[in-house]
Amino acid sequence: MELGSGPGILSRVLLIALIACPLPSWSQHASLSTNVLELPAINYGGSYYAAELSLLPDPGPPQLELIAALELSAPGPQQATQYRDGRLLVPQLDYLSESYWLILKQIGATRFQLEALGSRWGLNSSRLAVTTAPQWQRMPGDASDIGIGANGSIWLLGKDPRPGGFGIYYWDGGNWQRVDGAAVRIDVGPDGVPWTVNDKHQLHRWEEGRWLQMQGDARDIGIGADGSVWIAAGGGVYRWLGEQRWQRFSGSAVRVDVDPLGIPWVIDHSDDIHRLVNERWQRQPGSARDVGIGADGSVWVIGSSQGSGGHDIFRWDGTEWRQVPGSGRQLSVDQLGRPWVAGTGGELYFAAGEGAL
Q1: Within its chain, how far is the Cα of 343 from the centroid?
Q2: CA-to-CA distance for 228 and 205, rounded, in angstroms?
């Protein structure tokens, strides 16, 4: 099979197999060679393995077979592949001068199937020019908060006060349509289902045309492209386990969002930015008031410095924050990595045009 460039071709040739090989350095990322995916480090419950997976010739969604796995004697890198909830979450696969993230779902004892794949807009990509000149386009309506799902579903909270917070709306492609209820924070799952937090810190999820209250107390909510749900609460940061259960993590936060691999980024009461790495919070450079992460893995923040329309806007390039023109109060990031920003007065903008892609 001839290999081409881009996620579409890549997804047709991927298959997983773990290969045991001691590594001289932890700087290696996952790599694809012929029909074999090499994973130099996998974190499984605190133990680390080197692995390799091989692509199966079966038709249909790409499947990979585990060939071999060997436990490693030393801990892995901070961005090792994670195995949890029956999935391999690969943060970075380097292929043809581009970088990708992918999720592989376990479907048998040694077999995995490609579930999701996206571009990381890696440091070698010319598309990092996105950080210099977004073209802001005004959208109809006003917003106090925005949530965007990995499938492109867009929901917002308006500026119209109602019991519980502000009115809740979704974009139908041409207009904002209001639904019952009110909230102060909102985010949207990859299936387009919104979750909200109201002014009493209660959590709700939209199901079959109505709001279902969920267990928990929250100040903010973030949902990753893999479906991971996290909340920032007064007593800690929590990950949704399903069936009305939450797993508590140390620390506290006022804002949270989640990357495509289910890893949360949070902002604490001092505007400090943290990311969960190997079950520990790792301080990131800079300070911020809000954070948004797209399904492509791009991370944006509203900074702590005051601008004319709110606070400055920055995009993470993998090493540092790069400021872009404009300012805002709240933001969310769509599936293409474009930020949607609400200004001081609620004015709604998104980064449109090639300058934002």
Answers
A1: 23
A2: 14
Q: Distance (Å, rounded) from C-alpha 333 to C-alpha 314?
A: 12
pTM for this prediction: 0.71
How far apart, in whole angstroms, are the C-alpha atoms of residue 164 and residue 179? 14
Per residue in 114-153, pLDDT (tens digit) is: 887 776 653 333 333 344 457 889 999 999 999 999 999 9
Q: Which amino acid is at 151?
A: N
Answer whether 263's CB lies under 8 Å from 275's CB. yes
What's residue 101's pLDDT? 82
**Which residue type does 327 have?**
S
Query: Do the strands 220-223 and 210-217 form a parallel or antiparallel pair, or are they unpaired?
Result: unpaired
Q: Tokens standing for 113?
A: 């199937």
- 41: amino acid identity, one letter: A
Proportion of the chain in helix, strand, coil states, percent, rounded to 5: 5, 60, 35
Show the domains of the chain with their CATH numbers: 7-120 (no CATH), 128-356 (2.120.10.30)
Residue 144 near residue 354, CB atoms below 8 Å = no
Read off the tokens for 272. 């400090």
Nearest to 184 by CA among 218, 230, 142, 144: 144
pLDDT in tens, 228-253: 999 999 778 999 998 889 999 988 89
Cβ pair 204, 215 in contact under 8 A: no
Q: Which residues of 154-165 are buried (b: 16+ CB within 10 A; e: fewer)?
A: bbbbbeeebebb
Look at strands 30-33 and 87-95 and give their pairing: parallel
Determine the 3-state secondary structure of 251 from DSSP: coil
Distances in Å between the Cα of 44 and the Cα atoms of 24, 155, 276, 285 are 20, 35, 16, 28
**Model pLDDT for residues 259-303, shown as the tens digit of each residue:** 998 999 999 999 999 999 888 999 999 999 999 999 888 999 999
